[in-house]
Amino acid sequence: EIVLTQSPATLSLSPGERATLSCRASQSVSSYLAWYQQKPGQAPRLLIYDASNRATGIPARFSGRGSGTDFTLTISSLEPEDFAVYYCHQRGNWPSFTFGPGTKVDIK
Amino acid sequence: EVQLVQSGAEVKKPGESLKISCKGSGYRFTSKWIVWVRQMPGKGLEWMGSIYPGDSDTRYSPSFQGQVTISADKSISTAYLQWSNLKASDTAMYYCARCYDPLRGGDNCYWFDPWGQGTLVTVSS
After folding, report:
1. Does A106 touch chain B (CB under 8 A)?
2. Quick one: DSSP state of residue B62?
3. What pLDDT is attached to residue B48?
4. Which of B23, B25, B24, B20 is nearest to B8 (CA)?
5. Of A50, A99, B90, B91, which has fewest CB within 10 angstroms of its CB?
6. Average pLDDT of each block of 10 consecutive residues along chain B (125 residues)?
7. Which residue of A lies nearest to B94 if distances are taken between CA atoms?
8. Do A43 and B118 touch (CB under 8 A)?
């Protein structure tokens, strides 16, 4: 099973700051990695798929990059609604999927 | 608008059975996989399994194989997740989601979007 590790576990930042979240896979997943945002009491929402493609309706301040085992989600300038938990998700070996443990972005 | 609507919260006792549902609309239900994801209280996301409603091809995570049953009724665009012998450790939020492939298209299953609103299952004596 491919294991995803996310760092940091918690990121404390102020609105307007840049957030950089990391996801590392235990083996190569090529570019088959996505990012989801989950706010308290809500279902997750797809942000980025295939490592760097923004999903429909996702603002341009969200960007993803990486391939193989190392991936990054960047939020260029945090808006108040961006404080949430972010999960990475791999689809390396169909039909198996795994999620990372999540990074919580909270207000400093 | 593509939408998945799940059945309401459930409170059950250990040993009871349960079937929760997920109804899709706004797209061709039979041609996209549906996945089920568990989120235990205060924890992360776990993929449980996937079903292709067109032919009921079903795949399970090894962690959930034999513990739950995933099914679908394509005539009413609804997928199901069921338990025959609930345990307290099944207490969690359960989400369904459409699994699709915006880049390559077809019936490939890559990414989960959209998600249902979730069904909270509480198992307590």
Report:
1. no
2. T
3. 97
4. B20
5. B91
6. 98 98 97 97 97 96 97 97 98 96 87 97 97
7. A43
8. yes
Which residues of A are less than 8 Å from B109 in CB distance?
Answer: 91, 94-95
**Cα diameter, chain A:** 39
């706010």: which residue's tokens? A39
Residue whose C-alpha is closest to residue B116's, from B20, B9, B4: B4
Question: Per-residue pLDDT tens for A31-80?
Answer: 999 999 999 999 999 999 999 999 999 999 999 999 999 999 999 999 99
Provide CB contacts within 8 A for B106, sequence distance 6+: none
Q: Measure the CA–CA gap between B49 and B77, rounded to whole angstroms.
A: 18
Mutate to test the interface with A, among B113, B117, B119, B120 (most CBs of A within 10 A): B113
Residues for chain A: how many in total? 108
Q: Does A96 sit within 8 Å of B61, measured CB to CB?
A: yes
Distance CA A62, CA A53 (A): 10
Q: In whole angstroms, give the CA distance from residue A9 to residue A22.
A: 10
